[in-house]
Specification:
Blueprint: H1 2-20, H2 30-33, E1 36-41, H3 47-55, E2 72-78, E3 85-88, E4 91-96, H4 99-114, E5 125-131, E6 137-141, H5 157-169, E7 174-181, H6 190-198, E8 205-210, H7 222-225, E9 237-238, H8 244-248, H9 253-266, H10 279-319, H11 327-350, H12 357-372, H13 376-379, H14 382-393, H15 403-415, H16 418-442, H17 450-484, H18 488-492, H19 507-510, H20 514-554, H21 557-566
Parallel strand pairs: 1-6, 1-7, 2-5, 7-8, 8-9
Antiparallel strand pairs: 2-6, 3-4, 3-5
Helix pairs in contact: 1-10, 11-16, 12-16, 14-15, 15-17, 15-20, 16-17, 16-20, 17-20
Length: 576
């Protein structure tokens, strides 16, 4: 018996835990794997009276229509003496010794979910009863099957109730307690009809006949009770409940039980079956069978529990483990999360995650395309070359080559490189900011700390701003260096002798001829192309050195300095 108590008690505790965690059944759920006894019957079949007879207490709400509107998980615990009392899962610190209060609490808790309407809900009520007069057993009282919706009920109430009942009895681990009134044809029993559909072999079904004492004179239910009218693998059990008159007179359950025993023992029809009739026999029969089923299902229950534990541990790993309350533990946790973010960010840059390739796209596509679009054709047009050289010569014409004119044309051309250089800096800056945002979103450890996310993002972006400013200064410096000192060797190779077929008599006449101007423009264009090729290589190096390399090395240095100062005052990140 001790083993039976521990097994059934263990399943009871698991069921209660499932309800607290919001598991009310469903494919693959732990609740689904737990054996249980589902009580099924039509309205007015005597279902509530059977449960009260099993418990030996009058505790269920009564009335017309649908009284049971939520599943009631009734867990019976046998105690060694002491007072009888009841506890609800939704009110764990309150003991009920007055069972009239239990009835009221069931009604109030039902109304709390369904309102005062006649609607139903699949959220169960958990009731535990502790008594020396019960056996260890768990029963699930379900709404009574009905055929017609009455006033105040949904038009789909018939289908809704059947779907709810089916969701319990279709489970392979469910034991079906099918209750039918003896004063109606068993062929019309709603409970038997449903049980036959979901358990055609009768392996999981226990049949209960109520109202045997209300059958017409001269008739009996022996064909059913002895398994001739409808055979099940388990024996049928007959029950005699209190009549409505006895309920109205508040006849106690112990007297009703005694009367039931006397009825079967003295009955000429059922006397030979009296040892396996009545509510007490039914309770023992169900308790012993439930214990056997639990024994058979232990391996699958353990496997399901282990699977659930693994899933919960994985969820804990995702949302993060508990954090210590002292400053050192909190600082350690924050630094660990920062390191996790830094790893994700570097994976984006180094190719483990997407995003870093966009930086290469800036250098391989955006920068060359921008350089190609620079307006050198307009700047080095014949008319502009003539204008710049004339202004540079002033009142004295150049003697051999217009050096000042060359310098002014080159300086003006080199100035155009600043735009693409700064645009490359800004493009890489935008990519790095986006990678910071993505990395924060992809760092699992940070997901439950929005304040920490915001502060890391703010510090990282502030650092990126500094890297961008330094990068901008560096690339502009590279462009300016090209203006500061021209490559002399390039110009030494240029043939500066007067062109053939030139009829001009001297430099003053030669300096503004079309051929001469074209030659100057061509020379400057060639020099600018050489500089352009140089900058195509040097600008990406400068940007990577100043922005990408620094982001990998010191992106969170500002944040580390901030938390170093905050350590004195405490951290508010992990409380957000």
């Amino acid at each position: 018996m001790a083993t039976m108590e521990s097994l059934i008690g263990l399943v009871n505790r698991i069921q209660r835990a499932c309800t607290v965690l919001g598991d009310h059944g469903g494919e693959g759920s732990l609740w689904e794997a737990l054996p249980s006894v589902a009580v099924v019957g039509g309205q007015s079949s005597g279902k509530s009276s059977v449960l009260e007879s099993v418990v030996g207490r009058d505790f269920l709400p009564r009335g017309s229509g649908i009284v049971t509107r939520r599943p009631l998980v009734l867990q019976l615990h046998k105690t060694e003496g002491g007072i009888e009392y009841a506890e609800f899962l939704h009110a764990p610190k309150k003991r009920f010794t007055d069972f009239a209060s239990v009835r009221k609490e069931i009604s109030d808790e039902t109304d709390r979910i369904t309102g005062q309407s006649k609607q139903i809900s699949n959220v169960p009520i958990h009731l535990s009863i502790y008594s020396p007069n019960v056996v260890n057993l768990t029963l699930i009282d379900l709404p009574g099957l009905t055929k017609v919706a009455v006033e105040g009920q949904s038009e789909t109430i018939v289908e809704d109730i059947e779907m709810m009942v089916r969701s319990y009895v279709e489970k392979p681990n469910s034991i079906i307690l099918a209750i039918s009134p003896a004063n109606q044809d068993i062929a019309t029993s709603d409970a038997i009809k449903l049980a036959k559909e979901v358990d055609p072999t009768g392996e999981r079904t226990f049949g209960v006949l109520t109202k045997l004492d209300l059958m017409d004179k001269g008739t009996n239910a022996l064909d059913v009770l002895e398994g001739r009218a409808y055979r099940l693998m388990h024996p049928w059990v007959g029950i005699v409940n209190r009549s409505q008159a006895e309920i109205n007179k508040n006849v106690d359950m112990s007297s009703a039980r005694q009367k039931e025993i006397e009825y079967f023992e003295s009955s000429p029809e059922y006397g030979h079956l009296s040892h396996k009739m009545g509510s007490e026999f039914l309770a023992k029969l169900l308790s012993e069978h439930l214990e056997r089923v639990i024994r058979q299902r232990i391996p699958s229950i353990i496997a399901m529990i282990n699977k659930t534990i693994d899933e919960l541990n994985a969820e804990l790993d995702r949302i993060g483990r508990p954090i210590g309350v002292d400053g050192g533990a909190q600082l350690y946790t924050i630094l660990e999360m920062c390191r996790a973010f830094d790893r994700v960010f570097k994976e984006h840059l180094d190719g483990g995650r997407p995003g870093g390739d966009k930086i290469y796209g800036v250098f391989d596509h955006q920068l060359p395309a921008a350089l190609k679009k620079l307006p050198f054709d307009r700047h080095l047009s014949q008319s502009n070359v003539k204008k710049v050289i004339s202004e540079a010569d002033g009142y004295q014409p150049h003697l051999i080559a217009p050096e000042q004119g060359y310098r002014r044309l080159i300086d003006g051309s080199l100035g155009y490189f600043k735009g693409p250089a700064e645009a490359s800096v800004d493009a890489v800056h935008f990519i790095l900011k986006e990678l910071v945002r993505k990395s924060i979103a992809e760092t699992e450890e940070l997901k439950r700390f929005p304040t920490l996310q915001s502060d890391i993002a703010a510090s990282a972006n502030e650092a990126l701003e500094k890297f961008r400013d330094e990068s901008r200064r560096t690339v502009l410096r590279l462009v300016e260096m090209e203006s500061s000192y021209l490559t002399v060797e390039f110009f030494r190779k240029i043939n500066t002798e007067p062109e053939k077929n030139n009829n001009a008599s001297g430099p003053a006449a030669d300096r503004y001829t079309d051929n001469h101007l074209r030659r100057i423009g061509t020379n400057v264009s060639a020099y600018i192309q050489m500089v352009c090729d140089t900058l195509k290589n040097s600008l990406p190096k400068a940007v990577v050195h100043c922005q990408v390399r620094e982001a990998k090395r010191s992106l969170l240095h500002l944040f580390y300095a901030q938390i170093g100062r905050r350590e004195v005052y405490g951290f508010d990140y992990i409380n957000a």
